Amino acid sequence: MGADQVIPVRKAGLAEFAADPDMIRAVRDCTGGVGFDVALEMSGFNASLNNAIQSTRRGGDVVLFGLHSGNFTIESFERVIMNGLTLTSVIGREIFRTWMLTQRLLEDRTNGIQTKVQEIILNRGQDTVLDIADFETERFERMMREHPKIIVRFAAP
User: Fold this and answer.
1) Helix or strand or coil: residue 155?
2) Measured between alpha carbons, how far is 59 from 92 in angstroms, rounded to an integer?
3) 44: which residues sit within 8 A by CB, 6+ positions away?
4) CA–CA dist 29, 44 (Å, integer)
5) Each residue of 4-33: pLDDT tens digit?
6) DSSP 3-state of 151
7) pLDDT of 62 above 60
8) Angstrom distance (rounded) from CA 9 to CA 24
9) Which of the chain's termini has less CB crowding within 10 Å, N or C?
10) Mean pLDDT of all residues in 128-141
């Protein structure tokens, strides 16, 4: 899809809220030691919030799209203050309009999105489509580790 860099985002063994030091180091490496200008946190996971904060440069912006109820732990909160980070929350007042727009974009065959999803994200169906009749836990977990998206098909093709 044209990405310049792909960085794994989570390592086993970290606390549920903890930022991933390997990911932060990789971000710093690919940004000349500076960090992101803008980090978009869209998952709503505590660790992702800390990854976004730790990955953002001085004076940068962390935009919070993710939604999760309950309390969060912010690691190294002083970083937000000392580095002058701006945390901006985005509410979903436009969510239904954006869902409709996204649906139209995904359904429109003239823009090439469907082809890119099939060829790039779904690897042309090679090891990304699992028929439910062939489901095995180990295979499913391997597919999830190796591909950004898989499809579980419930009916025969």
Assistant:
1) coil
2) 26
3) 66, 67, 68
4) 25
5) 788 877 666 778 888 999 999 999 999 999
6) strand
7) yes
8) 9
9) C
10) 90
Q: How far apart are CA 23 and CA 18, in angstroms?
A: 11
Cα gap 75→62, rounded to integer Å? 14
Question: Token pair 């063994």 is at which residue?
Answer: 13
Structure-token pair, residue 15: 């606390």
- Kindly provide the b/e burial profile for residues 93-107, where b requires at least 16 CB atoms within 10 angstroms of the residue's own CB: eeeeeeeeeeeeeee
CA 43 to chain centroid: 7
Which of 27, 24, 22 lies closest to 4 in space, CA to CA?
Answer: 27
Q: What is the pLDDT of residue 117?
A: 86
| Chain centre distance of CA 128 | 18
Q: Which two tokens stand for residue 73?
A: 């732990």
- What is the SS3 assignment for 16-77? CCCCCHHHHHHHHHHCCCCCEEEEEECCCCHHHHHHHHHHEEEEEEEEECCCCCCCCCCCCC
Phi-psi region of 32 (alpha: psi -120 to 50; beta: other; left: phi over 0): left
Q: Is 39 left (phi over 0), alpha (psi -120 to 50) or beta?
A: beta
Q: Report pLDDT digits (tens) over 111-134.
A: 998 888 888 888 888 889 998 988
In the prediction, which pLDDT does 156 show? 58
